[in-house]
Amino acid sequence: MTDKMEEIKKEVCRKKWENFWYYHKFHVIIGVFAIAVIAVFVRDKVKQIDYDYTVAVVTGEGIPQDAIDELQSVLENIAADRNNDKKVHVLIQNYAIGDKNGESSNPQITMANQQKFIVDAQTGTSMILIYTDEVYEMYKDQSLFAVEGGIPVKMEECSAFADVKDGDSLRNLNISLRNIDESLWSKEKDLKAYYEDSERLLERFVDGDK
Questions:
Q1: What is the dihedral sign for C-alpha 102, 184, 207, 67?
Q2: Which of 65, 126, 144, 174 is spaced 20 to 30 Å from 185 by Cα?
Q3: Cα distance from N-terminal residue to C-terminal residue, the chain
């Protein structure tokens, strides 16, 4: 009798579950999907880095990642915390834009980098620019570079560059601020402060910590 009752209970539970699943399966699936999406969003949000500065390295071909990482570390050690999160993060964007004719070993990537650099230059994402002599000649007539006397400073001449251990691919590049249309400062209230902070970071990199 007891076994029979147990079988009946199991059968009732099974039918209840089948009935629930029949009428609510789409709601359950949508709910699980929504939870998964939220979990991914939260994970990405937690991992997202709020960068204090972005620096553009504009070259014909790409710079080795080890050199980029070394430079990033050096800059982070001397940069100020702009967003007051008690951490300093510097993003270095290497735009490999090809030679003066736009030619390179990887045309598709080169074209994408050219477009990204144009957007960067238009929006003022990177206030500090590091670039080859050829890039300087390509853009100097557009007044992109803030260079005194028409002669850019070489990376190897900068005080903090001595701390870039793997810097052979960077030492002959030039470094400067970019020129920016001051009329943009009224539209982007943080842009002026970002420019001034970037100027102080460049001074520390070139001349040492004062």
A1: negative
A2: 174
A3: 91
